[in-house]
Design a protein that fits this description.
The chain is of the alpha/beta class. It has 2 domains: 271 residues, Aminopeptidase, CATH 3.40.630; 114 residues, 2-Layer Sandwich (Alpha-Beta Plaits). Helix content is 34%, strand content 27%. It has 11 helices and 17 strands. An 8-stranded mixed sheet has the order 1-2-4-3-5-17-6-15, with helices on both faces. Strands 10-12-8-13 form a 4-stranded antiparallel sheet, with helices on one face. Strands 14-7-16 form a 3-stranded mixed sheet. Helix 2 runs antiparallel to helix 4 and helix 9 crosses helix 11. The structure holds nickel (II) ion (NI). The site of nickel (II) ion has 4 residues, from loops.
Length: 397
């Protein structure tokens, strides 16, 4: 595989950083171990950086042999782990109870560190690179917080690029697409206020359970009757909490929570509007009240055509054009990289990490307690970042 030779030589070192990160997972703005390791390495290599952006976030800057082009790129890696118990039994398994790197962000951070070391040594480009180490990707809106704390003001760039490992794609392959590649993530809570009472005197109550049942069914018509059939939406009710525990008591209230996934911001607005309308109309039809709290949590991740063109060119140099899927199907999972792409053009890509052995840790799905990042793909990601710089900001011959 034509990964950059000096990066291939870095593989064992990158794997060591990755295992250290894996052993010490932290979540949601508490990624002090990762931030400490990143700062230590950047300092060792003489790469200037600014830390404490969005709590534990770090941005490092590497200038090319020349900067006459005035061009700049940003590369992002997420640093955070998940609140779950690891079951891999690996020698470098998590030592933090109830925390685990089950999405491979340990690998993403090690990948970007490897690229940093290589790019700093070679500087084989005409421009500037900003390396964005981001906290709190998993439900903490870390990307958005870095933006509001001045990421693109203080570190201006033309494009931003990021990657995610992908167990469903084989190691040695890279996949991406123009347009939406990952969905938005919204969450909502519906509170139905009825009137409780004796289950044998239902006519004296306003039963929130019957109302909730109507609402659960009616909300599915948003997907089938309000959204363009060519468009895509998932609407799932994931919790329905009600009842007193007694078999003969009707409760006062029912609370439902759920999530909406789409690929367009306009479609999210349809969801919010229709959920509110359906809930309040059904509830009032039964003499109850419904309160809807709808939160836009994560933007869809929408790759720009020019960003994908650069990403494909770099990926083809690393894994060969035959191993780059330029039109992979989008997924309904969310990724807060979408917030960066709302501000800047660029691309988010999937780097295959699966193996033929389906039982292997690398082929387990993301967020599985048996999942582990595949160290074999560290040089692929690091080479891709390096080729992005050299392709987009070439030194004149
Ligand atoms: Ni992830």
């Amino acid at each position: 595989m034509p990964v950059i030779n000096s990066i291939a030589e870095l593989k064992d070192e990158m794997a060591q950083w990755r295992h250290d990160l894996h052993r010490n997972p932290q979540t949601c703005y508490e990624e002090e171990f990762a931030a400490g390791l990143i700062a230590k390495k950047l300092t060792e290599w003489g790469i200037p950086f600014k830390d404490r952006i969005a709590e534990t976030g770090i941005v490092a800057t590497i200038k090319g042999q020349k900067t006459d082009s005035g061009k700049a790129l940003a590369f992002r890696a997420d640093m955070d782990a998940l609140n779950m118990q690891e079951k891999t039994g690996l020698p470098y398994a998590s030592v933090n109870d109830g925390k685990m790197h089950a999405c491979g962000h340990d690998g993403h951070t090690a990948t970007l560190l490897g690229a940093a070391k290589h790019l700093n040594e070679t500087r084989n480009f005409d421009g500037t690179i900003h390396l964005v180490f981001q906290p709190a990707e998993e439900g903490g809106n870390g990307a958005h917080k870095m933006i509001t704390e001045g990421l693109f003001r203080d570190f201006p760039c033309d494009y931003i690029f990021g990657l995610h490992n992908y167990p469903e794609v084989s190691a040695g392959k890279i996949a991406m697409r123009i347009g939406a590649i990952m969905a938005s993530v919204d969450e909502f809570e519906i509170k139905i206020e009825g009137k409780g009472g004796h289950a044998a005197w239902p006519h004296d109550t306003i039963d929130p359970i019957v109302i909730a049942a109507q609402i659960v069914t009616a909300l599915q018509t948003i997907v089938s009757r309000n959204v363009d059939p060519i468009d895509t939406m998932v609407l799932s009710i994931t919790n329905l909490n009600t009842g007193t525990g007694a078999f003969n008591v009707l409760p006062d209230t029912a609370i439902m929570t759920g999530t909406v996934r789409t690929f367009k911001n306009e479609t999210r607005e349809i969801a919010k509007k229709r959920i509110t309308e359906i809930c309040s109309s059904i509830a009032s039809g039964f003499g109850a009240q419904a309160h809807v709290d709808y939160q836009y949590t994560t933007d869809p991740t929408i790759n720009t055509a020019d960003g994908v063109e650069i990403a494909v060119a770099a990926a083809s140099q690393v894994v060969g054009v035959e191993n780059v899927d330029t039109d992979c199907p989008p997924v309904m999972g969310g990724e807060d990289f979408g917030a960066f792409l709302m501000e800047k053009p660029g691309a988010f890509i999937f780097v295959g990490q699966g193996t033929d052995d389906g039982d292997c840790h690398h082929s387990q799905g993301l967020h599985s307690p048996h999942y582990d990042f595949n160290d074999e793909i560290l040089p692929i990601g690091a080479s891709w970042f390096s080729k992005l710089a050299e392709h987009y900001m070439p030194l004149e011959k």
